[in-house]
Amino acid sequence: MNMQSVVSVEKVVRRFGSGTTEVVAVKDISLEVVPGEVVLIMGPSGSGKTTLLSMLGGLLRPSEGRIQIGEDDLTLMDESQLPNIRLQHIGFIFQDFNLLSALTTLDNVALVAQLTGISRKESRKKAKVLLEQLGLGQRLDFLPHKLSGGEKQRVAIARALVNKPDMILADEPTANLDSHHGRETMRLLREVAKQEKRSVVIVSHDERIKEIADRVLWLEDGEFKDMVEMAVDPVCGMSIDILHAPATADFEGTKYYFCANGCRHEFLAAPNSFLQVDHE
Ligand SMILES: Nc1ncnc2c1ncn2[C@@H]1O[C@H](COP(=O)(O)OP(=O)(O)O)[C@@H](O)[C@H]1O
Ligand SMILES: [Mg+2]
User: Which of 25, 105, 126, 160 is deepest in the core (most CB within 10 A)?
Assistant: First the structure.
C-alpha cells in the first residue's frame, strides 16, 4: 500500500446471506484515501454505501479482501481489538446522529473521550473546548431532545472529532438537515480535514456535498462506476452527458457535444460565433 495513505481498501467483497438469497452488497472494491482528503461516495439507495462505510470503520467484516488503517490491518484483527481501533482512529457520524438521549451535549461528547482512558474531568474539558468551537457553548447542558437538527449534528461531529481520529466516516450526514445547516456542517468537516490532515469519507446521495469533496466516486450495485461526465452544448447551452451525446463534432482539435443534430449543424456553419472567449 501507499506509505502515505491512511486507509487502504483492497479488493473487498461483502456478501449477505447464502444460496439463492445471497446478496453481494459490495463487489471487489479498492480504494485509498490519503491524509487531508475528503472523498465523497455517491450512489442510489441500496448500492452498498453503508455496507462499505461500515467495513471501513471496522463495524462489519468483509467476506473477502483487505482493509488497512495506517499500520493496522482490520481484516486480520481479532474482534476484541476492533473497539479500541475504532475509538482511537475512527470518528463516525451517523445519519440519525445516535446521541445518547439521557446525556447532555457535553456528556455525549465527553463520554467518548473518557472511553480512551482519560479522566472524566479532562474529558469534559476537551469536550467543552470542542463544542465551543462548534458554536454549541450555550447548549452544553441540553439533552438531545432540546436541540435542533443542526445542533444535534454538530454534537455528533464533536463526538466524532474529540479523540482526534485519523479518519472520519459519515453516512448520509445531511439527510436530516435543511440545506443551510447541511452546507455549514459539511464545510466544517472539510476544514477539519484540511487543517488537521484527517481523512474524511462521506457516503451520500446529496449532490450538494460535491462542493466540499476532493474526489467523488460513484457506487452502483456494489461497484465503482465512472462518473457521468457532462459537457455544455455550445449552441443552446444545455448540459450533455458525453457518453450519450446525441451529436458530436470535432473542431480545431476539440470535441464538442450537442443536444441534437440541429445544434450541431448550426455550430458547424459558423463555429467561431459560438466559441467567443468569455472573459468574465
Ligand atoms: N445486514 C444485511 N443483511 C442482508 N442484506 C443486507 C444487509 N445490509 C445490507 N444488505 C443489502 O445490501 C445491499 C446494499 O445495502 P446498503 O449498503 O445499506 O446500501 P446503501 O447504504 O447504499 O443504501 C442492499 O441490497 C441491502 O438490502
Ligand atoms: Mg445507507
Answer: 105
